[in-house]
Design brief:
Layout lengths: L8 E8 L6 E7 L3 E4 L1 E4 L11 H6 L4 E5 H6 L3 H7 L2 H5 L4 E5 L4 H4 L4 E3 L4 E4 L6 E4 L1 H11 L3 E3 L12 H20 L7 E3 L1 E2 L5 H11 L7 E3 L8 H14 L6 E3 L5 H9 L4 E4 L1 H6 L3 E4 L2 E4 L19 H5 L2 H7 L4 H27 L3 H12 L7 H9 L20 H15 L1
Parallel strand pairs: 4-15, 5-6, 6-10, 10-11, 12-13, 13-14, 14-15
Antiparallel strand pairs: 1-2, 2-3, 7-8, 8-9, 16-17
Helix pairs in contact: 3-6, 6-7, 7-8, 8-9, 9-16, 10-14, 10-15, 14-15
Length: about 425
């Protein structure tokens, strides 16, 4: 059978948690097989900052993400076509997912004007005008050649309320039809619609219902992880996975904190992406089960052990915390070494979850992970509520020392650190 007769995406659920909504699956794409749940590192402009494609292969990364908006501006459609697509252009033989450029409506809002036709951007590079329509977004993604493409959606800030939220949701549904009509490479690339609806349960349900009427091979959940409360965040994820079909992959956009990944896998999500692992590396921070190690801190100066004794990445095999402290943020190589570790951490976390699901031991994995992640702090209430919703009960927190009661929790410290990093970048 020729490859053109085989769908460009097939998905099979290979194991399900007997308690929660977690599942392990196998997604077969044109360029590679992808085991789910999966974390996709973000290579916005066709590269991960600090990591070469060969190094990603050594980490067994199966799929990464590129950004349609940025790649459409630079290098542009003509260059991508001449190169034979992004895979050849960047020397990456495995799968690629591209977002549509819709997120830039929020992140570059001061540069964008939105109407029914599309989004009119001013380029952040040369101030030139660029109209991104559903058709043009698909044209760029067809030139990129991504295995999975996203529809152009109307994205509003997660804390937006009122009629604008419903307007954006309805427009997203209209735009997916324009994207499907414009899609010229359905034999090679799969288009995912994006569930919108803000923090409104009925709008989310209406959007899922409408999108499920389209002939697509998977679904994305968008419009979250942008400043809303965690209590609202998990409930919207839960609503979406309750209504999305079992036999197609579910992608939660822009989520990458370890605790969030564990909770959302329990809620039934299969795919994730986030810039966080490589961005936090540029600030001298390494990911571990207990959160982050800020290797710029003097306390690491004399520590001659690796970041994580259990990690098999090249950074942990060769370098000590002391050495990484010595070069953190002062030498460009530190970004590369910490990025390699952080991506390895995320991929290992996902692999461990897959294996726990396949052994039907996922609830115990969750309990063990949360105990380690919040070793010195109470587990946040939102996490307990989210996991309770899928029948995973966590043990009560140990009694805290009195002097810790007045200190910020580890989660608050992490959130503050990330806010500082985002502001600085």
């Amino acid at each position: 059978m020729s490859s053109s007769k085989i769908p460009p995406l097939t998905y099979k659920v290979v194991a399900e948690c007997s308690v929660s909504k977690a599942r392990a699956g196998l997604m077969t794409l044109r360029h590679s097989e992808v085991n789910t749940p999966v974390f996709m590192p973000v290579g916005t402009q066709g590269t991960l900052k600090g990591i070469l494609p060969d190094q990603l292969i050594e980490l067994n990364c199966q799929i990464l993400l590129g950004n349609t908006y940025h790649l459409g501006l630079r290098p542009g459609i003509d260059t991508l076509k001449r190169a034979g697509g992004l895979h050849k252009f960047m020397g990456w033989p495995r799968a690629i997912l591209t977002d549509s450029g819709g997120f830039q409506m929020v992140s570059l809002l001061q540069l964008a004007e939105i109407d029914e036709h599309g989004v009119n951007f001013r380029s952040p590079f040369d101030n030139s005008q660029c109209m991104l329509t559903p058709e043009h977004s698909i044209q760029i993604q067809n030139a990129i050649g991504a295995d999975i493409m996203m529809q152009l959606d109307d994205v509003v800030k997660t804390t937006t309320t009122g009629p604008r939220v419903e307007e954006a949701m309805e427009r997203t549904i209209r735009w997916v039809d324009r994207c499907i009509e414009a899609h010229a490479r359905d034999d090679d690339q799969s288009l995912f619609p994006i569930v919108q609806g803000g923090l409104d349960v009925p709008l989310r349900e209406r959007c899922v219902s409408a999108l499920m009427k389209r002939q697509v091979r998977g679904f994305a959940v968008g419009g979250l992880s942008g400043g809303e409360s965690k209590h609202d965040f998990w409930r919207m994820v839960d609503v979406c996975t309750d209504h999305l079909p079992r036999d197609k992959p579910r992608y939660l956009m822009g989520v990458g904190f370890a605790a969030d990944l564990v909770v959302c896998v329990a809620l039934g999500i299969d795919m994730f992406d986030c810039v966080f692992p490589t961005r936090t590396a540029r600030f001298g921070c390494a990911l571990v089960d207990s959160g982050q190690l800020n290797l710029k801190q003097p306390k690491y100066k004399m520590e001659m052990e690796p970041i994580d004794k259990e990690c098999e990445c090249s950074t942990c095999k060769r370098y000590t915390r002391s050495y990484l402290h010595h070069i953190a943020t002062n030498e460009s190589v530190s970004c590369s070494l910490l990025s390699i570790h952080n991506v390895a951490y995320q991929l290992r976390l996902m692999r461990t979850m897959r294996e726990a699901i396949q052994r039907d031991e996922f609830p115990q994995f969750v309990r063990d992970f949360m105990a380690a992640h919040f070793k010195t702090d109470p587990i946040p209430i939102w996490i307990r509520e989210a996991l309770n919703a899928v029948k995973i009960d966590l043990p009560a927190d140990l009694e805290r020392k009195e002097d810790l009661k007045e200190e910020p929790t580890a989660e608050k410290k992490r959130e503050h650190l990330v806010e500082e990093q985002l502001t600085a970048s």
